[in-house]
Specification:
With 571 residues, this protein is an alpha/beta fold. Helix content is 35%, strand content 12%. The protein contains 20 helices and 15 strands. Strands 6, 7, 8, 9, 12, 13, 14 and 15 form an eight-stranded mixed β-sheet that branches. Strands 2-3-4-1-5 form a five-stranded mixed β-sheet. The longest helix is centred in the first third of the chain and has 25 residues, at 35-59.
Length: 571
């Protein structure tokens, strides 16, 4: 019976654990039920909850069985009426007894609901529920959905193989808008023109149980998230590639696929994937293995990229670095296939009485009303691990701390002795974390001494060169002087994605830096993090939050800007 108690506890989420439903379930260490059982029970119950809510309320189940919460009532009613093997508990268990004694009335109300919805059989009703046909869109305006982006993992398969197997029966469209506005489970696909081996599908298409997904042949990855590896464009002559903050592994396995496609026979070009968090290291290793990229990817688990020594022999062959550090996550979009758990009204769920205004007596009409019967739980059912966690709190302070760390880690990447390519990306919409960091990095002493510059648009790989959304400028948020011609080149080189647009992407930013090999290189400092005290920065994983205590890093650019401001005040 622990199955129902544990499922109810996951849904109640009293500890306010972040992440998707699946990550919360699989992250629990003390479960008696299997994670697969829990996920299946919750997912199936949530599909039926709009029907079961009404069934439970009409039978007044919660008024008669005070030991049942609304969530437990939904889970038990689902299994009693709809699961093949019924309620998974001993016949004399208190919860099984509490639900089975109402079976006749619950079954009758389910039959009435089926007829009311217009379905002749329970099988037809079940098919409609599985297809999401009972859900009602809010408002009459057509709603553009975020598509299901699927990347073909070319380490294990090819686009043509997947089109003839996994996507057999799907119809190709040349217009992404048809995918965005298609009926929820329409079998159509759009082949992306910017990123090779990337498909867009309608948001409700569920491939999580397909052979291709379970074998790592396809990977769920937002289009924008594919930009950094593709823009980095690692070639055999570039040597090894570092993914500085690698978990959960989408960008890592994308890098591995590109390297695999281009690696010459007998060569040992590899991807070195850093991840400082132990739990996320496990996720990264699992994903790399599933994608069959373990012969290409060297996972440096529980290792902080900030602590890596740029002049070490271990990294002497590193020519390219993908840098996707912690960010505010303000570009992340909620998936449109998130499912709502519609909760039945509980007779005990009354709000606390409010005190009447001073000098007034409470009238009968002022008595607290019943809780809103339309209460729901929003469940993010997406199986892909979020790469960032949206932040809360004082935005300006967080952006200052985050952008300082981002600049610091970017400057650290620029110190690697033989590195000549870097991509810097965030899933943020804020100038401070995006163009602001790029301009400060270009103005830093390490960039000037080691010959780093922006990769201009006309030098970018073809699919990125053709992307039309470019950098933005917010003068008041940057305290360094920028030459007008440099500003124009840098903004044109920066790539942005906006959420909620006809492109179907999340909010995202990426820019690439290249190094002039003929430039004089400054000596490599083994203590590359000297300008930041250890206690201030211990490194952050790709979705870890920057604590309030983190202080901004003083950089050469920021320092010179402050001096200029003081000089102006004197005059």
């Amino acid at each position: 019976m622990s199955l129902y108690y544990e499922a109810a506890a996951v849904l109640a989420n009293t500890e306010n654990t972040g992440g998707s439903l699946k990550s919360r379930i699989y992250g629990k260490k003390d479960l008696k039920s299997t994670p697969g059982q829990l996920f299946a029970l919750i997912a199936e119950t949530s599909k039926w909850s709009i029907v079961l809510k009404d069934v439970i309320e009409k039978t007044k189940l919660l008024a008669e069985e005070r030991k049942l919460t609304p969530i437990l009532a939904l889970l038990l009613t689902h299994d009693l009426l709809l699961a093949k093997n019924g309620v998974a508990a001993a016949a004399n268990h208190v919860l099984k007894l509490a639900i089975t004694r109402h079976k006749a009335r619950l079954s009758a109300e389910l039959t009435k609901a089926r007829i009311r919805y217009g379905y002749a059989t329970i099988e037809a009703f079940r098919e409609a529920v599985n297809d999401g046909e009972l859900e009602k869109d809010e408002g009459d305006a057509p709603k553009s959905r975020h598509p299901r982006w699927v990347r073909i993992n070319t380490v294990k398969t090819t686009l043509q193989q997947q089109l003839s197997t996994t996507f057999a029966g799907f119809v190709k469209t040349e217009d992404l808008s048809e995918v965005l506005s298609a009926p929820k489970k329409s079998k159509i696909y759009y082949e992306d023109p910017n990123i090779p081996n990337l498909l867009a599908l309608p948001s409700k298409i569920d491939l999580s149980r397909s052979v291709a997904y379970t074998k790592g042949q396809i990977i769920f990855q937002d289009k924008a998230s594919c930009f950094p590896a593709y823009l980095l464009d690692p070639q055999p002559d570039d040597g090894d590639v570092i993914d500085a903050t690698a978990a959960p592994g989408n960008k890592t396995t994308h890098l591995a696929a590109i390297v695999s496609d281009r690696r010459r026979p007998g060569e040992e070009q590899k991807v070195i994937a850093f991840e400082r968090d132990k739990g996320r290291t496990f996720t990264l290793q699992k994903m790399v293995k599933l994608a069959s990229a373990d012969s290409i990817v060297q996972v440096k688990g529980s290792s902080d990229f900030i602590a890596a020594k740029p002049g070490s022999d271990e990294y002497a062959n590193v020519g390219a670095i993908l840098l996707d550090p912690s960010c505010s996550g303000t570009g992340i979009v909620g998936r449109d296939d998130a499912i709502k758990m519609h909760l039945p009204e509980s007779p005990n769920s009354r709000p606390a009485p409010q005190k009447p205004e001073k000098g007034k007596k409470r009238k009968r009409d002022d008595e607290p009303k019943e809780a809103d019967p339309s209460a729901t739980l929003d469940l993010d059912m997406d199986e892909s691990t979020p790469e960032e966690t949206p932040m809360h709190g004082k935005l300006a302070e967080r952006l200052t701390a985050l952008s300082s760390f981002q600049l610091h880690i970017l400057n650290h990447a620029m110190r690697f002795e033989n590195a000549h390519k870097i991509t810097y990306s965030t899933c943020s919409i804020h100038f401070e974390e995006n163009e602001g960091v790029v301009f400060q990095a270009l103005a830093s002493s390490v960039a000037k001494e080691r010959g780093w510059s922006i990769l201009k648009r006309d030098q970018q790989v073809d699919g990125m060169k053709r992307w039309h959304r470019r950098g933005v400028w917010e003068d008041e948020k940057l305290e360094i002087d920028v030459d007008e011609s440099l500003k124009s080149d840098v903004l044109e080189a920066c790539i942005r994605c906006d959420k909620g647009t006809e492109e179907g992407t999340m909010g995202f930013f990426v820019a690439a830096f290249v190094r002039d090999g003929s430039s004089h290189s400054a000596p490599i400092m083994e203590t590359a993090v000297a300008e930041v005290e250890d206690e201030e920065f211990n490194g952050f994983s790709g979705d870890e939050m920057v604590e309030e205590t983190v202080k901004p890093v003083e950089t050469p650019a920021a320092d010179s800007a402050e001096k200029r401001k003081k000089k102006k005040r004197k005059h």
